[in-house]
Write a structure and sequence with these properties.
Shape: globular
Number of helices: 0
Strand content: over 45%
Order of helices and strands: EEEEEEEE
Distance between the termini: 19 Å
Number of strands: 8
Largest sheet: 3 strands, parallel
Structural class: mainly beta
Length: 74
């Protein structure tokens, strides 16, 4: 994802199943009206074949490819 504009409220920008090989590359994100920085940029889940996936992490990682300098709050 590149050159993304997001306006709060919201929960997360990207959710991936990293155990199933999902990866996200995120650059150039502008987030508006979220001074508390509540919107999570990238969340990782343990994907399953039945039922709901469980959250296993969030933030920059090898699967959630971004740096905090790529995110601008306005």
């Amino acid at each position: 994802m590149d050159n993304i504009k997001v306006t709060a409220p919201g929960k997360s920008l990207v959710g991936i199943n990293s155990n199933l090989g999902d990866k996200a590359t995120i650059t150039n994100v502008s987030i508006y009206n979220d001074s508390s920085k509540k919107i999570v940029i990238c969340e990782e889940y343990k994907g399953v074949t039945s039922g709901e996936p469980s959250k296993i992490g969030s933030g920059p990682s090898s699967a959630c490819g971004y740096s905090t300098s790529s995110i601008t709050y306005k």
